[in-house]
């Protein structure tokens, strides 16, 4: 059953006319909506960068199960970007064009550097990045829950789970590498 909140375009406008909705509740819902949109805009561009970085990453590797897994991860990042874009549309929001350009450049640059940086660095930083992505989707899910957007909540939690799976893959892949203790001290991902 759809709630009045999951048709979120103009949520604030519709709610103003609902009996029994205080200004405090209205303000809280508008704030949750704005926070959800902000996180989704960041995630949308972040998935862009990640997908291009992973494309360069798997292309830099020899044929192996790791290469295939990273190729699959790239496809999952494109899928997340598509799903996040759909939620932005449902919220009446759009990606930020400048952020899109910046993250396109970041992704393409990272993808190219995978060809010269060796095996460990892309694996390590991909895992570190994925650890923040799962948290970002969990944070977005909190706001979707406040807005009673159950389908969005479920979708965001699914994406958080997939990002966590990515992190686990990269964590297991770099486990035991001689550079790992140094990188942990420098960059904090454990």
Key features?
190 residues, mainly alpha, Ferritin, 77% helix, 0% strand, globular, disordered N terminus
Can you give a write-up of this model?
It contains seven helices and no strands. By secondary structure, it is mostly helical. The protein has a single domain (20-187), classed as Up-down Bundle (Ferritin), CATH 1.20.1260. It is globular. The model is unreliable at 1-19 (pLDDT under 50).
CATH superfamily: Ferritin, core subunit, four-helix bundle
Please give the radius of gyration in angstroms: 19 Å
Mean pLDDT: 86
CATH architecture: Up-down Bundle
Count of helical regions:
7
Q: What would CATH call the class?
A: Mainly Alpha
Distance from N terminus to C terminus (CA atoms, Å) equals 42 Å
Please give the largest β-sheet. Answer: none
Helix content: over 70%
Our count of domains comes out at: 1
Structural class: mainly alpha
Shape: globular
> Which spans have pLDDT < 50 for at least 5 consecutive residues?
1-19
CATH fold call: Ferritin
> Which range does the strand content fall in?
under 5%
